[in-house]
Fold this sequence. Notes:
By secondary structure, this protein is mostly helical. The protein contains 11 helices and 3 strands.
Amino acid sequence: MNGTRWTERLQAALPAGALAPALVTVAAFAVLFAHPFSTLVHDWLTDPDAGHGLLLFPVALWLAWRRGVEKEPRPARRWAIVLLVGAVLLRYLSGLAAELFTMRVSMGLALAGLILWAYGPRQLMRWWLPTLLIALSIPLPAVVLGSIALPLQLKASQLGAALLTSRHVPVALSGNVLHLPDRSLFVTEACSGLRSLTALLALGVLTGGLWLESVWTRAALVVTAIPVAMALNGVRIFLTGFFVYYVSPALADGFMHYTEGWAIFVVAFVILGGLAWLLHRLEQALSPHRGETP
């Protein structure tokens, strides 16, 4: 029964007589973009900074399937051709330069071009949330990540040092190094909060897209993820320094250190979920149709 429903939905999603061209298109797409997609999956599996893609990509596919396709598609063939030609050229040039990020962007542009060809721009708008989640699942280039991570390292170090000073822990801050009496704590790129920030931004987009209705409340939720991630990462550095000074220097490494990171992320998740609930209640309170009899 379930197999029959899936077949019916697939047939409904394709225009009449489009099955054979669709299969040819899928085959051509697979040949052209097999390398960028395989490297993308490899990064999801091996790179901690890109691991959120393992969640975002399947969720995006499920949301797109759940939303379905427009009943009356209005293909934009001219724009689709422009986008497809540009995507193929970008794929070729990025392949010559061995630049993975641009290869993956070309894959996304090709997908958008195919959607425009078959269903039109209204379908892209219908799939805005899956599209945004797929875009967030593509890791940024290392140069961009490094330029973002360094300021986060410095801000987190400053906040952690300030909290330690407020608790009467003697600390001297030198860039992203906290000097304690018995040990120096080096805030590495992995401890900059970039991973939690990326994950929280993706979580904010997903939560806002599913629970909230207004563009402004969705934007507020996503923007709030930035200070939440930065503040809680500073708290993590403070806790590490506090335990190192008052308990044992060994607590700066190993299981305890990683446990702190997971605990802080759970707190950030709860804060973001609570804010989403408050924004949802605010939308309900301000809705002009609230209280009307259907």
